[in-house]
Specification:
Helices cover 62% and strands 0% of the residues. It is mainly α and 173 residues long. The chain folds into two domains: 3-120, no CATH class; 139-169, no CATH class.
Length: 173
């Protein structure tokens, strides 16, 4: 996923989430009774917010893979640093920004640097490619798979019979 595709998909996801959640909540406040507004807001939070967080993590993972980094490391690290930032602002209120649940200045700077990196860093031509599954074996063991049998024929291995796919179903380049 290139820089422009990342920007457009992130902007589109934000617009769709704003329209969907905002529309449901405004309809609930306009036409719903006073007692129904709370459960509707909780239902929207339980159903749609995790869906949009999952979609944003997938978009970010695709962009991180395009840059050439391992998304299985970077995305959980990003979530962990964000969580640590919010916990730090909760436990040490002197570091917190004035808004409720806003995090710290250091966390916001790190988030901005990560966002700018995702938006402006050029991707590698092949992106991130998982290392081969047999990378830890010695050369002799790998060569023994291709030795001819008694008939003089090299039996095809399971690696020869199927396409080797990396995670997310991508073929290595």
């Amino acid at each position: 996923m290139g820089r422009l595709a990342y920007f457009l998909s992130t902007s589109g996801l934000a617009a769709v989430s704003l329209v969907l959640v905002g529309g449901i909540l405004s309809l609930a406040s306009t036409f719903g009774s006073e007692s129904a507004r709370g459960p509707i807001a909780i239902g929207v939070g339980v159903v749609f917010v995790p869906l949009f967080i999952w979609a944003q993590c997938n978009i970010t993972g695709m962009r991180v893979r395009d840059i050439g980094w391992n998304p299985a490391v970077i995305v959980p690290l990003w979530v962990l640093l964000t969580w640590i930032d919010y916990m730090l602002s909760f436990l040490v209120p002197e570091l917190a920004l004035p808004n409720a649940l806003a995090g710290t200045v250091i966390g916001k700077i790190l988030s901005m640097l990560f966002l700018l990196t995702l938006l402006f860093k050029a991707g590698k031509p092949g992106g991130y490619v998982d290392p081969p599954a047999d990378s830890g074996k010695t050369t002799e063991v790998r060569a023994a798979r291709y030795l001819p049998n008694s008939a003089g024929v090299v039996p095809p291995s399971r690696f020869d019979r199927q396409e080797r796919r990396t995670s997310f179903g991508r073929l290595p380049r």
